[in-house]
Amino acid sequence: MKAxxxxxxxxxxxxxxxxxxxxxxxxxxxxxxxxxxxxxxxKENPDIVLLDIGLPDMSGLDVLHEIKTxxxxxxxxxxxxxxxxxxxxxxxxxxAFNYLIKPVGSHEIQVSIKNxxxxxxxxxxxxxxxxxxxxxxxxxxxxxxxxxxxxxELSEKVTMSMETPTLIIGESGTGKGMLARKIHYSNSGSPGxxxxxxxxALSKELVESELFGYESGAFTGASPKGRKxxxxxxxxxxxxxxxxxxxxxxVQVKLLNVLEDRYFYRVGGSKPIPVSARxxxxxxxxxxxxxxxxxxxxxxxFRLNVVTLKLPxxxxxxxxxxxxxxxxxxxxxxxFKKKFETISPDARELxxxxxxPGNIRELRNTIERVVLMEDGNAILPDHLAFAVDRDAVQxxxxxxxxxxxxxxxNRQVEKIIASVLEKADNNIQKAAGLLDIPVHKLRxxxxxxxxx
Length: 452
Prior knowledge:
Blueprint: E1 4-8, H1 12-22, E2 27-31, H2 34-44, E3 48-52, H3 60-70, E4 76-80, H4 85-93, E5 98-101, H5 106-139, H6 146-158, E6 166-169, H7 176-186, E7 194-198, H8 204-212, H9 230-234, E8 238-242, H10 249-261, E9 263-264, E10 273-274, E11 278-283, H11 287-292, H12 298-304, E12 307-310, H13 318-336, E13 342-343, H14 345-353, H15 359-373, E14 378-379, H16 390-396, H17 402-423, H18 428-435, H19 439-451
Parallel strand pairs: 1-2, 1-3, 3-4, 4-5, 6-11, 6-12, 7-8, 8-11, 13-14
Antiparallel strand pairs: 9-10
């Protein structure tokens, strides 16, 4: 069955030309003013609308609003004779999928309609999986800590506005990315993709073109076809800027403009591209100190700091260490087909006494390694030796001297290494991989063990 397209324009010649262009592939309906467009839309419920902004009886923006009120899912492509940035941005804010500038070529129209219909199908697909994804990311936040409960309650309010930026602050491993995904999937109004940009992983020269894209010939080595940036890829979804504290100052200026104006230009481009994505930034550094040092723009910090979600480190959430450990144990039981049922009291004491500098990521990796490498129905203190620092071992040892505690620690490490080597058939490279340490470090530990 052909998709239905409603074409709205007050020029008869334009209507005739568009109908001739489209009728071989689509069922075409026509309207020459705003009121007629609304009536035809209500009656025929087309799959997509091509809508001229300048109509004789009412603004195309008002028609857009009425169409979106009737059916929010219908993509609307705005057509304008004049490229007026404010009007284009307003159209996108009201829900327009895209905009075209007259005169419009037949190929450009065909491509725009094809993209809009594919985007609609993608939205429908995302909605079918959105419920399970929301539950998935909610389940990763096992909250008993009052500060965390308050933070999650605040994060629910964040989903109410797509245009308000969110800043997530927290040490490495506290779950900043997980919280960003939870915000994204909790919002039924943003069915677009979740796009991650790790600012620390990009060179200073690449950050701008990666975020904003570039036009053909924008710089030496640029693709002849140009390239979309991450803002365009995010569409109506979420752009997550991780480690924003290392973003170059020159790019910070452009990001501030995007947050203020909701549009940008590709590198080497002159066409304004509206932004409809939610923007979430995250950092494990103190941005206020970076501002004081001149490493981060104060105006950008103030703009990002509208809503700040501060994730406390795991050492300040002691009441969540054991519930999280149990959750990870059960999760990895399923993955590795193991039968661990509990964590012994002494092992729980070790988990609580450890400082966890790597936060939840370190705890998760610790439990994963134990469940993978060990057997039995209980996680024991010996299983955790590789993850527990010397201070914790000394604390657990009571009246033992520092030397005694160190000897105990070394014996536990040797036991773990011996067990892993046995499982790896004495293959050092394989054993190092299972322990998640470099081969040279494992050789060093074996050498020290032999010397003792």
